[in-house]
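Retry 2 of 3 after timeout on previous attempt. Resubmitting structure tokens to design endpoint.
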């Protein structure tokens, strides 16, 4: 992890993805390639910010729901599940913003988080928070990413993430 300045208040980009990630016709939980925070480089109070954007399509008869999770060290820190999605979405743009705040460090480190999903479609929009501290081991290299899951496998359920940035 890069140095964050003398007072520790500058942001560092851990990961920036500009290639297309697609999740279509499956109910298998699938994570984007993300960033890695090196062992023992978190500080108390660090805030991980994940931002993603892309398009979603659900023109099938029963598209189901979409689950979005923030993973830190393989653990789901916060989970958002959409309402049952409309059957009329075609290339609907969306934006995801999530913050993970590290409350404590070490092998028994903890974090809390919040996530929001915004689009022009009310069945996709929403937010979730996890105010109960979740376990995060900060003494090992720690992967940070987003994971997506469709509740229904349908060839017309199409999720394309065009960009992802992770900063701390």
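Retry 2 succeeded. Sequence:
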């Amino acid at each position: 992890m890069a140095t964050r300045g003398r007072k520790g208040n500058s942001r560092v980009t851990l990961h920036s993805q500009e290639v297309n990630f697609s999740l279509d016709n499956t109910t298998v939980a699938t994570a984007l390639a993300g960033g890695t925070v090196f062992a023992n480089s978190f500080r108390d109070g660090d805030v991980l910010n994940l931002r993603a954007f892309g398009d979603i399509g659900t023109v099938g008869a029963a598209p189901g729901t979409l689950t979005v999770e923030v993973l830190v060290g393989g653990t789901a820190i916060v989970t958002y599940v959409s309402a049952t999605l409309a059957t009329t979405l075609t290339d609907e743009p969306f934006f995801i913003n999530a913050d993970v705040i590290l409350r404590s460090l070490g092998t028994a480190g903890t974090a809390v988080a919040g996530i929001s999903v915004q689009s022009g479609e009310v069945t996709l929009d929403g937010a979730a928070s996890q105010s109960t501290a979740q376990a995060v081991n900060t003494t090992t290299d720690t992967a940070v990413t987003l994971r997506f899951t469709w509740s229904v496998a349908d060839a017309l359920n199409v999720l394309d993430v065009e960009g992802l940035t992770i900063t701390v």
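Attempt log closed. The CA atoms of residues 26 and 153 lie 4 Å apart.
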